[in-house]
Write a structure and sequence with these properties.
The chain is an alpha/beta fold. It folds into two domains: about 190 residues, 3-Layer(aba) Sandwich (Rossmann fold), CATH 3.40.50; about 220 residues, NAD(P)-binding Rossmann-like Domain (Rossmann fold), CATH 3.40.50. Strands 3-2-1-4-5-6 form a six-stranded parallel β-sheet, with helices on both faces. A six-stranded parallel β-sheet has the order 11-10-9-12-13-14. It has a two-stranded parallel sheet with strand order 7-8. Strand 5, helix 6 and strand 6 form a beta-alpha-beta unit. Helix 1 crosses helix 3 and helix 12 crosses helix 13. The protein is elongated, with a radius of gyration of 24 Å.
């Protein structure tokens, strides 16, 4: 089948590769010609382990191409996947302008019956609106089936999640459209839930809300563990043996970030507010996450007796390892908190870049973790990159001015770090 993927960001590029892997002829469409040029040349412009090799493989086979020509791409399409961004507006509701623009583009250029698959995370009821936007832009009436098919990709393991999904959710009014989408994904080795579009849209928000709640739960519990001198990691291990709970995302730290959890939880709360329905649990989830970076930062401030003029090494900028994504990263909040308190800050990340901002206070970006740590009064680990576990901490201890180490991800062995001479403190671990 001839398939067009609109939007070549993280989700769109992954979907384009998956559909090419399933044997379809895929065109990635984007108005950002720089992205298009880089992808067409076989260069992935974001960090995702192993994906650049896969990109080059399908470009070489000729089953995948990228273009900025919407008219030509859409005219030959049999199915179109909408994978454009839905960033948060100031009122926390999703900005649907890119979705609406994509819908109008489809309506203007489509030449025959189309299956339109909505991968973008959108509020309940948006798929119905997309169908209306497409039809209103058509020069002449043509049949279109709009199906909600939310994505559940995790940055850092996108290809695995795409090829070995936990489930596929299909929200369709037309059973034939649902069947066509199932065929696009064949072979399928996971449960498939076929429901209506609104329910499918709700599933995505509900899933991310629940996962965010798990993170905030263990982070809030870590604060009590600090008070009681209890190891939160051992508490987590004990409760996670319960199959009803499970170990995923039950690791205390500095909070969640990224492009999904913060935005989607806020969007769900905004939807609830619009319908005069209060989601108090999720309100608390957000509050805990907003305050967790500051809670961890306070550990460092107490350990140093103040920050003015002190040199602090921050390890990790990305919101999680195996990605260069710093969107809503709690690490950035910690760095800015340090700078605002007049600390000298050195930062290191194996992949992610410091996002330059219009501020006089900027951290020193170091090419190596050892460089950031040398002569530092303290260090705080904010992203649990495997590289940090492989550092020679015994040698690093000798280069630091003072040995205060705040493990914001409970990554390193506390007793080992203490035996090397560090004043070690984790999150819910003394």
């Amino acid at each position: 089948m001839n398939v067009v993927v609109m939007g070549t960001g993280y989700v769109g590029t992954t979907m384009a590769l998956l559909l090419a892997e399933r044997g379809h002829r895929v065109t990635g469409l984007d108005k950002d010609l720089d992205k298009i040029g880089r992808l067409q040349s076989g260069s992935l412009y974001f960090h995702e382990p192993g994906m650049e090799r896969i990109l080059r493989q399908y470009l070489h086979r000729g089953s995948l191409t990228f273009t900025g020509n919407a008219e030509e791409a859409i005219a030959h399409a049999e199915a179109i996947f909408i994978c454009v961004g839905t960033p948060a507006l100031p009122d926390e509701t999703p900005d649907l302008s890119y979705v609406r623009e994509a819908s109008a583009m489809i309506g203007r250029h489509m030449k025959s019956h189309l299956l339109v698959v909505v991968k973008s995370t959108v509020p309940v009821g948006t798929s119905e609106n997309i169908a209306r936007w497409i039809r209103s832009a058509q020069p002449e009436p043509l049949e279109v089936d709009v199906v909600s098919n939310p994505e559940f990709l995790r940055e850092g393991s996108a290809w695995q999640d795409a090829t070995q999904p936990d489930r596929i959710i299909i929200g369709a009014r037309n059973p034939q459209a649902a069947w066509r989408l199932r065929n696009l994904y064949e072979p399928i080795y996971c449960p498939v839930l076929v429901t209506d579009p609104s329910t499918a849209e709700m599933v995505k928000y509900a899933a991310n809300g629940f996962l965010a709640a798990k993170i905030s739960f263990i982070n809030e519990l870590s604060r009590l563990c600090d008070k009681l001198n209890i190891n939160v990691d051992e508490v987590s291990a004990g409760i996670c043996y319960d199959s009803r709970i499970g170990p995923s995302l039950m690791k205390a730290g500095i909070g969640y970030g990224g492009s999904c959890f913060p935005k989607d939880v806020s969007a769900l709360l905004a939807t609830a507010k619009q319908h005069n329905c209060r989601l108090s649990i999720l309100e608390r989830v957000v509050r805990v996450n907003e305050t967790q970076p500051g809670y961890v930062l306070d550990k460092l401030i107490r350990g140093l007796g103040g920050l003015d003029g002190k040199t602090v090494a921050v390890l990790g900028l990305a919101f999680k390892p195996n990605t260069d994504d710093t969107r809503e990263s709690p690490s950035l909040r910690i760095v800015r908190g340090l700078l605002n308190r007049r600390a000298k800050v050195r930062v290191h990340d194996p992949v992610a870049k410091w996002p330059q901002a219009r501020s006089k206070r900027q951290p020193e970006v170091c090419a190596a973790a050892e460089q950031a740590l040398a002569g530092a009064d303290a260090a705080i680990l904010c992203t649990d990159w495997p590289e940090y576990g492989r550092l020679d901490w015994g040698s690093i201890r000798k280069t630091m001015r003072t040995p205060l180490f705040i493990d914001g991800r409970n990554m390193l062995d506390a007793e080992k770090m203490k035996s090397l001479g560090f004043r070690y403190e984790g999150v819910g671990i003394q």
